[in-house]
TrEMBL record:
Family that this chain belongs to: Belongs to the RecJ family.
Protein name: Single-stranded-DNA-specific exonuclease RecJ
GO BP: any one term: DNA repair
Gene name per UniProt: recJ
Residue ranges of every copy of the DHHA1 domain listed in the record: 348-441
Record GO terms (molecular function): 5'-3' exonuclease activity; nucleic acid binding
Single-stranded-DNA-specific exonuclease RecJ C-terminal domain segment(s): 573-776
Natural source organism: Fundicoccus ignavus
Record-linked InterPro entries: DDH_dom, DHH_sf, DHHA1_dom, RecJ, RecJ_C, RecJ_OB, SSDNA_exonuclease_RecJ
UniProtKB keywords: Exonuclease, Hydrolase, Nuclease
Amino acid sequence: MNLAKYNWELPTHSQEETKLIEELQMAGLKYSPAFLRLCIERGFTSKDQVEQAINQTPQLYHDPFNLYQMDIAVERLQEAVANGEQILIYGDYDADGITSTLILFETLETIGANVDYYLPNRITDGYGPNVARYEEFIANGVQLILTCDNGIAGHEAIARAKELGVDVIVSDHHEMQATLPDAYAIIHPKHPEGDYPFAELSGAGVALKISHALLDEIMPEVVELAAIGTLCDMVSLTDENRTIVLGGLQFLKDTQRLGLRLLLETQQVEFDKIDVDTVGFVIGPRLNAIGRLGDPTPALKLLQTFDEEMAQQLVVLINEKNSERQAIVKQIQQEVEARIDLLPELPNVIVESGTDWHAGVLGIVASRLKEKYNRPTILFQHLLDKQELKGSGRSVDQVNIFEWLQSIDQHISYYGGHSQAAGLTVNENSWENFKEALHSLANKHEDKINQPESLKIDAVLPVSEIEVDFIEEVELLGPFGMDNPRPLFVFEDVLVKNIRLIGADKTHVKLSVSENQHADTILDCVAFSKATQFEGIQNEDTLSLVGTLSLNEWRNKVSPQVMVTDMGIARTQWLDYRSSRIAPELLQETAAIYVFRHSKLAAYFSERIPSSSQVMLYQEVNQESLETNTKEKLIIMEPPQDIDSLEFLIKQTEWSKIYLGSFVQESKYTAGEPTRQEFAVLYRWLSQQSSFHFRQSLSKMSEVLKIHQTRLKLMIVVFFEAEFVTIKDGFVSFNTAHSKEAVDLFALPAIEKYRREMQTEALLNYQTISEIERYFEENEVKS
């Protein structure tokens, strides 16, 4: 598929699948065949499996004491409560860390603990256990530290606490390194000596298990917190996490947390419609924003307080911080993109730093750049006073960034994270070596990085099957997220209707599609941030779409809608850039071949196009010159002398796009072909002239003879081929000694060449794009 950003992995269907659908229907599952086909594609092949997958009130909670050392941790916490020891919950600054901290705080308060919490400041404390902070709290009387959403890599601080006689219980879920800290107990679903049946809990999920173990019951008010942490931390939405999220969403619809209610009200959220997106796009970003820019404690207090005045103040503060965060993200992203534009080619890994960049938002920017460029991206804040760089990285699916950092950890002071995201610190004196090692590593994996990411398609569906009832069936498989992605559907060879750009900056696309000209069903589609990909697509074009399904409510009417993930066309796309002036954007295309007729123009423009593109002359095009071509875009800067040379060029490569500039310095098509009468007039005039300089006399000749200059130039060449004139050093002389035999001027090579140029220009400059496209397609079939 040309224009597609991803590799589409289409499902295969078999007679066995058809038989399974019939069996499921006979077993009493009253769902559409399309939905049952989707269930089978997801691996649900029995009635019990389907019913479990669509159960919206699951009760799958594993025994918390199956977590390794949970019994030791609970016993120590109960001892601390009984003895009145001062307990500190040491959390984290993101939404998962904030919610897990509050879960543990409210739980320990419930059983009468002397407990307080601390959320580290991302900027001043950094991630995870901090030696100085631990020492400070211990000096102030803390006798037991309980971490949440951190600690698995906190060797130094935990060892220091032990030296000072204070036990540390670690509760965490991040990737474990080879050596574990010397903690009193470590509660981790992936503990190497444990055997917990579900390894993908979030930090809040682990906190929920501790709460359950301490109370011997699950409190609804902490389940809603666990659901927020689980959704915000992008962990697997299967097994126990599905129970946590679905239960938590139900509790959120009737939440008694005053601050949370006020926050949702400011964003016009309808409480009965709270879903995964509400957490992902409304709650999560705002809880994260304040921790990204400084002290995250107000976010926790917002979830905790029952004081209306305080809640209102906190909502204002958090919304302001979120707006501030958005502005900072945009500024840094633009700065990095400007740097990348100046590079001769896109590197295999993006590594950039800035002294004024805010470390708290670098993960967001890295994620956006990763999506835009399909490259692992690590961005750093350069702390000049500390002589170190603190960074956040995000990776493409093909690369495990945590393993990359492990392999070059001799250049890194600290790192942590997982396969797709990581945080790290690099000393100034290791910076250049770190970058060199990382780029070297990326270059070794260039083929893997350059592979388009795959989209696993759940089903290929006709537009006519997309109805409200079917979409409601699909929603039963939710909540969607990690390991349970929202189903992706392909709509093949649909006809475009009513396409237009939307949004303040016109970067989004809204269109409707149908199966054909006469189809009754019209399906609305929205493609966010895909205006560039849809460039050149017009009404009545045929294309294929990949997307997810949703319901659009407008004026009390509910209708199906496709949220477009990718698009492609099964042919080369032609883009019309014909104009009297060269469009500046035409000279900015990367990885393209710019083809010219005239060598002087080619030389001029070769210095004005991106370094990843190349210039080629039509006369240089041959099989050998194109054998190693890796370019996907062809830019026709000038029409060729002969259409055959362009046909050859087009047929030799699977071009994704052909940009038609076809700039003509002198139009032969508009000048037309000379007539016999004009040849006779010129002949008589020449026979009466002495030698003259043709170029210097051309304008005057045209005026006197009333013959277009372009035709005059041709006629002089024709007379030269017929030996009626001689030409030397630009001077034309009538040849009185030429043969008097009749010459068919219109059969001479110059005329034939001129006619071919006229025909080429007539096609490339005066036909519609669709007619030009049809011409080359028909010639391809004939050949």
